[in-house]
Design goal:
With about 400 residues, this protein is of the alpha/beta class. It contains 15 helices and 12 strands. Strand 5 (about 180-185), helix 8 (about 190) and strand 6 form a beta-alpha-beta unit. It holds the Pfam family Cys_Met_Meta_PP.
């Protein structure tokens, strides 16, 4: 049986779509089963007390979780991957690398849950945060303090889809010995691999596009170096916020179709974004695939696709809520990245934890909606939105 390192080496020259199916643990070596087994066990027998087994207690590691962790590490090109009970559990564990007195520079329009963690929990532990517009590298540089230890990026940002130049920020951060982290939920490794651009830790809410079916809650973290991987492993084991074996199996199954889903959803998202941009009753459309998007050039240099999320402003809270009550096809719900389209209202959902005045400063207006395009026929989605937008 190959080790994860041997499997990664054997697969390194394969195309990404091939790696999604052939990732080193796709066949059970014991039985030949075509699916990773679900090891529904909390503890493991020591056959020889002088030679402890690889797995001893499922919080510290399990074969099903190991298969998933090696899988995401291979896809992101990292030295080690770790699976957590949610996206926020993964983000929280990664940020626990920092200590009291440290200062972080963070994307200003970051996901609301991350904002809440930084401003109401880590702040109590004396970890300071400065939020900046990361589309401007000079603002990132100006936020540097003597106690700055890390830079946290989200690109495209949630929900306004602003673009950060990942390579430029990572290069600057290395000059100042800063740890860099990127939330790669929107793009996934199918379209964007930040480790290849020098980023230290990549994070995912795997609940979204990686899982893809609105049936699993999960988070993933991938480290660039063995040293950082060891730190993440220690935090995962110490905090205990691990992903259970059945959820690991669901996530493995979901990732296998990532390429097909992302490509199909992106085709729909591009059509939807262009249609919305031509409507006079829509004040703004945010999508990096639009020619007028200010970050399009940078995004195209660091990503191979535009993604499946489109945000748009219909002008007011009243009009946004009326549309939400009129649509028939998308789920009106928290989350994104599923086979079914999901329409969200960030002021009440993903960014409810952000005070209104802060939210408005970051361009998250009362009329802003976020549309995660699924696998439905895009003409049906457009017709549904058209009737919902009608006065």
């Amino acid at each position: 049986m190959q080790t994860p390192e041997e499997a990664a080496q054997a697969l390194k020259d394969r195309h990404f779509d091939t790696k999604l199916i052939h990732f080193g643990a796709e066949i059970d070596p014991a039985t030949g089963a075509s699916s990773v087994p679900i090891y529904q066990a909390s503890t493991f027998h020591h056959f020889d007390i002088y030679n402890p087994p690889q797995y001893d207690y499922s919080r510290s590691g399990s074969p099903t979780r190991q298969a998933l962790e090696d899988y995401i590490s291979l896809l992101e090109g990292g030295a080690g991957g770790y699976a957590f009970a949610s996206g926020m559990a993964a983000i929280s564990a990664a940020l626990m690398i920092f200590s009291a007195g440290d200062h972080l520079i963070v994307t200003e329009d970051v996901y609301g849950g991350t904002y809440r963690l930084l401003t109401t929990i880590l702040s109590r532990m004396n970890i300071e945060t400065t939020f900046v517009d990361m589309t401007e590298l000079d603002q990132v540089k100006a936020a540097l303090r003597p106690n700055t230890k890390g830079v946290y990026m989200e690109t495209p940002s949630n929900p306004t889809l602003k673009i950060t130049d990942v390579g430029a920020v990572a290069n600057w951060a290395k000059e100042h010995d800063l740890l860099t982290l990127v939330d790669n939920t929107f793009m996934t490794p199918y379209y964007q691999r930040p480790i290849e651009q020098g980023v230290d830790i990549v994070l995912h809410s795997a609940t979204k596009f990686l899982g893809g079916h609105s049936d699993v809650l999960a988070g993933l973290a991938v480290a660039r170096t063995p040293e950082l991987a060891a730190q993440l492993k220690k935090l995962q084991n110490g905090l205990g916020t691990v992903l259970g074996p059945q959820d690991c199996w669901l996530l493995i199954r979901g990732i296998k179709t990532l390429g097909a889903r992302m490509e199909r959803s992106e085709i729909g998202a591009r059509r939807l974004a262009h249609w919305l941009s031509e409507r006079k009753d829509v004040e703004a459309v945010y999508y990096p695939g639009l020619p007028e998007h200010p970050g399009r050039g940078i995004h195209e240099r660091q990503s191979t696709g535009y993604g499946a999320v489109v945000s748009f402003d219909v002008g007011s809270e009243e009009r946004a809520k009326r549309l939400l009550n009129r649509v028939k096809l998308p789920l009106v719900a928290v989350s994104l990245g599923a086979v079914e389209s999901i329409l969200s209202y960030p002021p009440m959902m993903s960014h409810a934890a952000m005070p209104r005045e802060v939210r408005l400063e970051r361009g998250i207006a009362d009329g802003l909606l976020r549309f995660s395009v699924g696998l439905e026929n895009v003409d049906d989605l457009i017709a549904d939105l058209e009737q919902a937008l009608a006065d």
